[in-house]
Structure formats: structure tokens, C-alpha cells
Design brief:
The chain is an alpha+beta fold and about 450 residues long. The protein folds into four domains: about 100 residues, Thrombin, subunit H (Beta Barrel); about 100 residues, Trypsin-like serine proteases (Thrombin, subunit H, Beta Barrel), CATH 2.40.10.10; about 90 residues, PDZ domain (Pdz3 Domain, Roll), CATH 2.30.42; about 90 residues, Pdz3 Domain, CATH 2.30.42.10. It has a seven-stranded antiparallel β-sheet with strand order 7-6-3-4-5-9-8. Strands 22, 23, 24, 25, 26, 27 and 28 form a seven-stranded antiparallel β-sheet that branches. The longest helix has 16 residues.
Length: about 450
């Protein structure tokens, strides 16, 4: 014990005689190098690009400026003045040979000019190959040599807790790297996009990161950053990325057709819950419950029935109605799809051919403005046994009532509706109040208006 005390005393004495200087961070600890992401980032960051867009809009003129005499008197140019809008975002080179760059639809939406800036400083004009607003994916093409691309990982193999790195161009600062983990998988119902199956991460994603890369520690692309949850306008550690398996399916469509021409299966679904499982006398509580089959639809022809529980679509598991909708939304007209269902305790495999929605039912567009003031600014469409809202002008009476694009009008004052004419006659028969029932996705909603 005394030896230890003497040793400590001698060490203290030596430290007092020699001032302590700050030691440099060691390169190795216990003969092992310190962990770093730098080698991986050296390989992938050249494939992440900055995207800037320009949109030209005609400036709002004072009515006097439309008078030719007034313009001549004050020597004003005859050409209308244009207002330039700019936006910044990110993108990822996924095919160096073909010059393909993936970004978000909202980054390039309505752009008249798209510029891609590479890590080495080159600025390239980009051509829009195709875009899909429903999934917020856009495909660009640039003509350049010596591009670097990133290979994709199987995003279905991601697990909560996996480390990920987000790369992008936040706030126009230039390329920035942040790290975190996968916080959750399969996020949907957020109302951000039409089809949602997001990877949630706490890696910092900020404005300008949209369209950038989310990679794993092997440098493989697992997602395209697209949105954040920011209640107070700043990053709170909740960011969302579109999984690459979904992105790659969309890119296949865009590269070949320039768009995603979605077909229809013809079922209305809701989540399978424990209560519903008990009511149907089954033990399987995962899947999508068929609550309605559209007459004459591919689902109807394939033999699907009300009460069936869809568990697999093309051998891919279906967790809930949103999951099923995402699977179906990636199918094109003419695709043959295998639907695995649970019916009265039996597992059945049914096959359907996805069809164009316009061939499933006859369509006749009717301008709601011609019906009455309640439906001004809407276009309604007859489908077999349904009335679909095709468009609704923002701030119109119909918008204020609560109608939205894609709604299916089911009933007026508890009377079922099958045609637009039925709705028109119902609104003309009596005075307000009116009660209208609609289906929005898998929800049934009622509005009362006067």
C-alpha cells in the first residue's frame, strides 16, 4: 500500500514540475483505429448533387398597365414583366451511364429550368424524364462524363435501430452530412403524399435536404429524404425518407413511360383489428379487410368477396390497408397480380389483371357548377354505382363544405346515390340543411351544410 502512495506522490511531483500540454486525439486506441464514416462518405458523396430550379411567372399587373396608351405615354415596354421564382433541393445519381438523377417531385414541380450541380463544381442542365406526384419521386437526366452513382440496398431488410446517414443541401449551405438511426418503418397516414411507406429517422433533415440520400453504413442507398415533422419550423429529429424499393419501382415506370399509369384492383379496404378478427371468428389480426368489391372490377372477376382478409400481394406481406394500397399503387395497367386471402379460415390464392380505371366503368364528367351553388368549382364523375369528386377549387363553396379531390359521394340525407343526376335532383328537391356522406380512402365521413 505504501508503494502505491509513494508512486502517486512521485507522479504528482512530476506533473507539478512539467506543465501539462493538451494531447492530440489519438489515431488508434489499443492498436485499433478510431471509428469513422469518412472512407464510406468519400465514395458516396460525389453522387449526391445540389438541384436548383427556376420558374418564370408573369407578374401581377396593375389594370392601368394593360392600357396601351398608358404604357406608351410612360414609355413602358410592351412585353409583360416576368417574376422569377427559385428553389433549392438535392438529388442522387443512381445510374452514371445513363445520367439518371433521382429527386423529389416537389423540388422540381412547375420548374422551367433545372440545374444540377455536382460535388466537383460542374453545373449541368437537367432534363425531366418523368415525375410521380403521388409518391413525390422525380427522375432527371444529365449529360456528363465521370459521374459517380450509388447502388441501392434492399430497403425491406432495414430494421429499427440500423444506423443511417443523410446527405443533402440544407438551406443552400452546400453538401452536409448528418447521422442517426432508423426510428421507425412503414410510416403512413401522414397526409404528406398519396402513397406513404416512409422510413422515419432522427438523422437531421432540413429544408433543402429534400431529394437527398439516406444511406446505410455500407454506403448503399436505402431511401430518398423527402419531409420532416417540424411543429415549430425547425428540425425536431423526425424525418422521413421514401424507401428505395418503392423508389426503384417508380423509376422503372418513369424511365420507360415518363409517368406512372396506375390501374385499379377494385376493392375498398380497412385495417384488420382484434375486434374485427373476433367478429369474423378468425385469429389473424394482420392484413387488410375487404369491405367492398366494385362490380365488374378486376377484384370482382378474380373472385374477391366482402369479408376477405388480404394477407399477401404478389407474395409480399400486407400489414394493413395502407400497406395494401401501397402495393396496389405500384402496379400498372395489365400487370397480373396474385392476391392471397384468408376466407373463413382457408388460405386462397386469387389472380387478377390490373385494369385502367376508365374501362372498369363508364365515365361522364359533369361540371358541378352547372348543378347548383353548393357544388360550384367541382367536377363530378359517374362511375359504376359511385360518384367521384374529380376536382375541387380551393375556397369554393364545395371546398368549404369539406369535399376534396378523390372523395366518393355515397348518400345525401341518408338516401344512397349512384349517379351525379341523383345528387343534383336531391339538392334541388328541398331546402337546407343537407347531410352528405362520403368515403375518403377507407374512412366514412358526413358533412352537414346549409
Amino acid at each position: 500500500m505504501y508503494k502505491h502512495i509513494i508512486a502517486l506522490w512521485m507522479l504528482a511531483l512530476m506533473l507539478s514540475l512539467h506543465p501539462v500540454t493538451q494531447a492530440a486525439l489519438p489515431f488508434m486506441v489499443d492498436d485499433k483505429p478510431l471509428p469513422t464514416l469518412a472512407p464510406m462518405l468519400d465514395n458516396v458523396t460525389p453522387a449526391v448533387v445540389n438541384i436548383s430550379t427556376r420558374q418564370w411567372q408573369r407578374a401581377q399587373d396593375n389594370p392601368l398597365l394593360n392600357d396601351p396608351f398608358f404604357r406608351y405615354f410612360f414609355n413602358l415596354p410592351n412585353e409583360p414583366e416576368n417574376k422569377e421564382n427559385q428553389s433549392l433541393g438535392s438529388g442522387v445519381v443512381v445510374d452514371a451511364k445513363r445520367g439518371y438523377v433521382i429527386t423529389n417531385h416537389h423540388v422540381i414541380d412547375k420548374a422551367d429550368e433545372i440545374t444540377v450541380t455536382l460535388r466537383d463544381g460542374r453545373s449541368l442542365n437537367a432534363e425531366l424524364v418523368g415525375t410521380d406526384p403521388e409518391t413525390d419521386v422525380a427522375l432527371l437526366k444529365v449529360a456528363a462524363d465521370n459521374l459517380t452513382d450509388i447502388s441501392s440496398a434492399n430497403s425491406d431488410q432495414l430494421r429499427v435501430g440500423d444506423f443511417v446517414v443523410a446527405i443533402g443541401n440544407p438551406f443552400g449551405l452546400g453538401q452536409t452530412v448528418t447521422s442517426g438511426i432508423v426510428s421507425a418503418l412503414g410510416r403512413s397516414g401522414l397526409g404528406i403524399e398519396g402513397y406513404e411507406d416512409f422510413i422515419q429517422t432522427d438523422a437531421s433533415i432540413n429544408p433543402g435536404n429534400s431529394g437527398g440520400a439516406l444511406v446505410n453504413l455500407r454506403g448503399e442507398l436505402v431511401g430518398i429524404n423527402t419531409a420532416i415533422l417540424a411543429p415549430n419550423g425547425g428540425n425536431v429529429g423526425i424525418g422521413f425518407a421514401i424507401p428505395m424499393n418503392m423508389v426503384n419501382r417508380i423509376v422503372q415506370h418513369l424511365s420507360k413511360y415518363g409517368e406512372v399509369k396506375r390501374g385499379i384492383l377494385g376493392v375498398h379496404l380497412q385495417d384488420m383489428t382484434a375486434d374485427l378478427a373476433e367478429a369474423f371468428g378468425i385469429q389473424h389480426i394482420r392484413g387488410a379487410l375487404v369491405v367492398e368489391v366494385v362490380s365488374g372490377s378486376p377484384a370482382n372477376k378474380a373472385g374477391l368477396r366482402k369479408g376477405d382478409v388480404i394477407t399477401l400481394i404478389d407474395r409480399k406481406s400486407v400489414e394493413d390497408s395502407d400497406d395494401a394500397r401501397n402495393h396496389i399503387g405500384l402496379l400498372r395497367v395489365g400487370d397480373r397480380v396474385r392476391v392471397t386471402i384468408l376466407r373463413k379460415g382457408r388460405i386462397l390464392h386469387l389472380y387478377a389483371i390490373i385494369e385502367d380505371p376508365n374501362t372498369v366503368a363508364s365515365i361522364s364528367g359533369i361540371d358541378g357548377g352547372r348543378l347548383n351553388r353548393y357544388l360550384e368549382g367541382t367536377i363530378l364523375t359517374d362511375r359504376r354505382g359511385m360518384i367521384e369528386v374529380k376536382t375541387v377549387e380551393r375556397d369554393s363553396v364545395a371546398w368549404q363544405i369539406g369535399l376534396r379531390k378523390g372523395d366518393v359521394v355515397l348518400a345525401l340525407n341518408r338516401r344512397p346515390l349512384t349517379e351525379v343526376d341523383d345528387l343534383a335532383q336531391g339538392l334541388s328537391r328541398r331546402n337546407s340543411p343537407y347531410a352528405i356522406k362520403i368515403r375518403r380512402d377507407d374512412d366514412i365521413i358526413s358533412f352537414v351544410f346549409r
